[in-house]
Amino acid sequence: QVQLVESGGGLVQPGGSLRVSCVASGPTLGRYAMAWFRRASGKPREWVSCISAEGRYTEYAESVKGRFTISRDNAKSEVYLHMDSLKPEDTGIYYCATAMHPQCVRGYQFYTYWGQGTQVTVSS
C-alpha cells in the first residue's frame, strides 16, 4: 500500500512562486512514475506534469510549460512541483499520484495511488 501526502500549498499573488511537495510511503517509489494533477472549482481534474521513475524524463501540460518544474528525490521518496509566474487560473487543489510502472504518462487512469491534495490559491 502506498500513501501520498502533499504539502506546501497556500495563497500567493499573481506572478509569484510556490513549491508543493509530496512524500510517499510504501514500496520503493523509485520504480514508479509520478505525476501532479489539479482540480479547479467546478472543473474536471487536469493533468499538470509527470516524471519518470528515475527522474530522467518529464512532461508538462501546455498551460504550465516553461513555468512549472517537476522533480523527485527517490532517496527521500519525495516529488516536487516548483511553480513560477503563477496565474489566477493556476488556482486549485493539487494532487500527486503514482503509477505502478516507470514511464511518464498523462491519463489519470494510469495512476493508482493518490494523495489528498493541497490547495493553491493565486490571488491578489
What secondary-structure arrangement, pairings included, does this model have?
Blueprint: E1 3-7, E2 10-12, E3 18-25, E4 34-39, E5 46-51, E6 58-60, E7 68-73, E8 78-83, E9 92-98, E10 113-114, E11 118-122
Parallel strand pairs: 2-11
Antiparallel strand pairs: 1-3, 3-8, 4-5, 4-9, 5-6, 7-8, 9-10, 9-11
Could you please describe the fold and organization of this structure?
This protein is an all-beta fold and 124 residues long. It contains no helices and eleven strands. Strands 2, 4, 5, 6, 9, 10 and 11 form a seven-stranded mixed beta sheet that branches. Strands 1-3-8-7 form a four-stranded antiparallel beta sheet, with no helix packed on it. Strand 4 (34-39) and strand 5 form a beta hairpin. It is globular, with a radius of gyration of 13 Å.
Please trace the helix and strand order, writing H or E for each element.
Answer: EEEEEEEEEEE
Helix content: under 10%
pLDDT averaged over residues: 95
Query: Which range does the strand content fall in?
Result: over 45%
Estimated structural class: mainly beta
Shape: globular
Number of helices: 0
User: Whole-Å distance between the termini?
Assistant: 40 Å
Rounded to the nearest angstrom, the radius of gyration is 13 Å
Number of separate strands: 11
Low-confidence stretches: none
Major sheet summary line: 7 strands, mixed
